[in-house]
Amino acid sequence: MQDHQQHHSLAALIRSDPRYQYLDASITLFIVVLLISNIIATKFFAIGPLRVSAGQLVFPITYIFGDIFTEVYGYSASRRAIWLGFFASFILAALSYIAVVIPPAPEYKDQTAFSTIFRPVGRIVVASLLAYWCGEFANSFTLAKLKLLTKGKYLWTRTIGSTVVGQAVDTTVVMFAAFYGMRPVGIILRLIVAGYLIKVAYETLMTPLTYAIVNFLKRTEGVDYFDYQTNFSPFATTES
Predict the structure, then answer these.
(1) What are the residues whose beta carbons fall under 8 Å from the beta carbon of 38, sequence distance 6 or more?
(2) Is the dihedral of CA 49, 55, 59, 61 positive or negative?
(3) Which of 76, 150, 192, 202 has the maximum number of C-beta atoms within 10 A of its C-beta?
């Protein structure tokens, strides 16, 4: 009986919502961007004294998606996207590990290079999932509450304000979890500062595009959700 209830709860968290035309496609794009950011995160480059992970070039887009989900469809839609992204990332980590440890064929000469690229992916994904839990839920919760506080006005205060909160948590957690012991602490701190500034600036600059997408979805989907009675637990299976 308990196993059946757990299965039902899981299905409720990830099932499609037939009320909306664009939600599933948007969640799919969100997951693709999330996985790409995890794969390319091992490379970092210099911008003056700052050090920037390649993953930080695309990862902020996931927060823009999170803002759009919460603003248009409500916190429960964002929660579903986060869970689907969580499972997809877990599969990426598991398969990356398996692909690395499988003994290569004698004629395959690129095992060292392959391992260099993909061996850290598992750790990065695990770190990303930990940060993702903290940061994405903090981001969506902040935006939902700010929407109620502003009565649906001043979208820019919500998109930027939620990013300031969510990315501070996410960037700190993911950098230490992913690189501690692999990189000097000084480098990690520079990655945190650079990543946080880039992500907040990214979100700020993308505000006009976020406005356009949000307005399009609200108009075409016929929805503008307010989380007045929402259960904000990550494990809730209903909107309220």
Answers:
(1) 55, 89, 92, 121, 124, 125, 128
(2) positive
(3) 76
> What's the CA gap between 89 and 237, in Å, rounded?
21
Considering only CA atoms, which of 33, 128, 117, 120 is closest in space to residue 90?
128
On whether the CB atoms of residues 214 and 136 are closer than 8 A, the answer is no
Cβ contacts of 57 within 8 Å, gap of 6 or more: 40
Q: 193-216 pLDDT, tens per residue?
A: 887 888 788 888 888 888 899 999
Q: What is the DSSP letter of 23?
A: H
Contact (Cβ atoms closer than 8 angstroms) between residue 83 and residue 13: yes
Question: Whose CA is closest to 230, among 131, 129, 140, 134?
Answer: 140
Give the pLDDT band of residue 239 (cuts 50, 70, 90): low
Domain boundaries, the chain: 2-42+55-221
33 neighbors 62 (Cβ within 8 angstroms): yes
- Tell the burial category of 174 from Cβ atoms under 10 Å away from its Cβ (0-12, 13-18, 19+): buried
Q: For the whole model, what pTM was predicted?
A: 0.77
